[in-house]
Each structure stands twice: as C-alpha cells, then as structure tokens.
Design a protein that fits this description.
2 helices, two-stranded antiparallel ribbon, about 230 residues, disordered C terminus, globular
Length: about 230
C-alpha cells in the first residue's frame, strides 16, 4: 500500500507544475469537516461503527470529508441509485474510510487508507441483496479548491481522477468531526495481482451503480496525462 501511494505521488507530481496554495486558490484552510447537499451525511461516530462493521443511515444521501491539520482524513458516503430498466431496483451504498492524506504541490490530493475501511451494498434485485465488504483503495483527486458561496459559505470542490467534479461540500465545522485517527478494526489481508487506484466514483454493474470501485494503473497513467492538460 505504501509503495503504491509513493508511486502515485510520483506520477501525479511529474504530470504537471506546482500550485500555490494561496487565498486565490483557497479562501480558507481545508482543515475541518465538509458535507454536501442537506449536510445530513457527516463523518464521525454518527455515521460508522467500525468495530461492528455497522452504519447509522442518515435521513438523506450525500458525502462528507474531514481533514486534520496534521495529515489525517475521514470520508463518509451514502448514495442511492435507481435503475431505469427496473425502477424498483434501487441500489444503496454506504461507504466509510479513513487514513492519511497529502496535498501534492501540483494541486492534487492523495488519500491513503489505514486498511480498515468498509462499505455496505443493498440491491434488492441482486443475487445477494445486502452485504458488507472491505474498502481500502487509495484515492486520487486531481484538482481541488475552496471558494466562498454567497449562501452556503466556505465551499470545498474536489475533482475526481478523470477531472469530473464531486458535489460541492460546505464547511460545517472548523474542528474535524472524526473517529480516532488509527486502525479501528482487524482486517484480513488479501493478495492482489495488480496495483489499483480508487477513482472515487461509482461504476455501473448489473442492476445499477453498485459500489465505489477501482480503476487500473493503465487508466491512471492516461488520467495523469489528462490532468496535465487541465492544468
């Protein structure tokens, strides 16, 4: 995991030039807790209970990111996706992960998990309609900035590996609302045959968008080249 994270940092750093993190780029620091939409999804103890591999379902979908000033992060995500072909097949995904982050000088962010993340997938039309699986993928955000929204206030905008924006997130606390910044559950390690990087997007699979999935290293190399053009 650490070797891959270092390789990822090398790739994104060499892809394009440096970004100056000044007031023109960010009107405030990234430290704190951010939440999208109606702000019902918030990181911390009210969302995930890692020791039990359990979730507390918010009243609405959304996502929340928290960052400390010493390099730790936590992510909470909840989404539901309908199926155009079978309207009754609504897929729900709850996702939680935490670890360390690096603000790269080229303007990207790399999130490296501790290894104890997990997600719950509910799909009434699938062979297995409700299950929990590990989620421990390194995530790359090629661009980010913080601006002032006239109504919502400080707003964090993250851009995924392919340049597509995530929903804007609004600052709800300058003090990060997070679980302890250390591994919180035991996870059996599995052997993988290829290096992967999280693309922070949900991909289509069978009855609808089912999970936050991984993209191949080949795809990352292509994306890094694209990001250099964007900057």
């Amino acid at each position: 995991m650490m070797i891959f994270a270092s390789l990822l940092l090398l790739l994104v750093t060499s892809a394009h030039g440096q970004i100056v993190y000044d007031a023109a780029h960010n009107v405030t620091a990234i430290t704190g807790t951010w939440s999208s939409g109606s702000q019902n999804v918030v990181t911390g103890s009210g969302f995930a209970t890692p020791s039990q591999e359990a979730f507390t379902y918010p009243s609405t979908t959304g996502m929340s990111y928290s960052f400390t000033d010493d390099g730790y992060y936590e992510v909470a995500r909840y989404r539901m996706t309908s199926n155009g072909s079978v309207p009754t097949c609504i897929t729900g995904v709850m996702n939680w992960v935490h670890g360390t982050y690096v603000l790269v000088s080229n303007g990207s962010i790399v999130l490296t998990p501790f290894g104890d993340g997990y997600q719950q997938i509910q799909d009434p039309c699938a062979a297995i309609s409700n299950f929990i699986e590990n989620y421990n993928d390194t995530e790359l955000y090629t661009l980010w900035n913080i601006y002032q929204d006239p109504v919502k206030g400080y707003t964090l905008q993250l851009y995924q590996y392919d340049g597509s924006p995530l929903p804007p997130q609004y600052l709800i606390s300058t003090s990060p609302n997070m679980l302890p910044t250390q591994p919180l559950r035991n996870v059996s390690k599995t052997t993988t045959t290829s290096t992967t990087v999280q693309n922070a997007a949900v991909l289509n699979a069978n009855a609808g968008e089912r999970r936050w999935e991984v993209a191949s290293m080949t795809g990352l190399l292509t994306v890094v080249g694209l990001a250099s053009l964007l900057l």
